């Protein structure tokens, strides 16, 4: 499947929020359905829970290769994934939350992302 950069960011942020809420444990089936619903609505491209899981597995494999190669990787998703996957469950290094009914995530060294039920936009 084709994944745009925008849809991939939505996936990472939606999965990341649920992953942290679950104490860095694997998501349950119903959580993957929620992830797929959010990704589909925000990116306006239908994605199933299986497509989301497969994309995340691919991203995790790429992250592990990049991490072995260089801790200063320039891969666009590296810093975000590193903050999620390479920190203790008690660290809260990924500020995010709800603002006026929109999910807002601020990731270091990348534009702020605002998600609404029907749109994806970057705010600089």
TrEMBL record:
Residues 2-84 form the Myb/SANT-like DNA-binding domain. GO terms for molecular function: transcription cis-regulatory region binding. One of its GO terms (cellular component) is nucleus. Signal peptide: none annotated. Transmembrane segments: none annotated. PANTHER family: OS01G0718900 PROTEIN, TRIHELIX TRANSCRIPTION FACTOR ASIL2. This is Myb/SANT-like DNA-binding domain-containing protein. It comes from Pinus radiata.
